[in-house]
Design brief:
This protein has a single domain, classed as 3-Layer(aba) Sandwich (Rossmann fold). It is 28% helix and 20% strand. Helix 3 links the parallel strand 3 and strand 4. The N and C termini lie far apart (44 Å).
């Protein structure tokens, strides 16, 4: 059985951006591009709950920008139920904090 890789796009992007990557990786893995949740809530926990319910377990998670941030948080939540994590053009958070000073200053955001 081939392993599954789920690709999550970034903010404001549909999955079309990731289709060439999915096609290129498709020979070795089952690759699926999954849309980000369309929720009225801005709470990260709500987004993660939706993704955790919708996406298969025991798969690789990958994401571009916001998709990478969500993939990382979901991988941390799933622990051993996640095969691995790949982030592309991602950051731990958008806005700088004491824990992550290299992000964008709050005044700029």
């Amino acid at each position: 059985m081939r392993e599954t890789l789920i690709l999550l796009p970034g903010w404001g992007l549909d999955g079309a951006l990731l289709q060439p990557l999915a096609k290129a990786l498709g020979g070795d893995m089952q690759v699926q591009v999954s849309a980000l949740p369309r929720l009225s809530s801005a709470a990260a926990a709500d987004w993660l709950d939706e993704l955790d319910t919708r996406l298969p377990h025991d798969c690789w998670l990958a994401g571009w920008s916001l998709g990478g941030m969500l993939a990382a948080a979901l991988a941390a939540r799933r622990g051993e139920r996640c095969r691995g994590l790949i982030t592309l053009v991602s950051n731990a958070c958008f806005v700088a904090s004491a824990a992550w000073p290299t992000a964008m200053p709050a005044q700029t955001y």
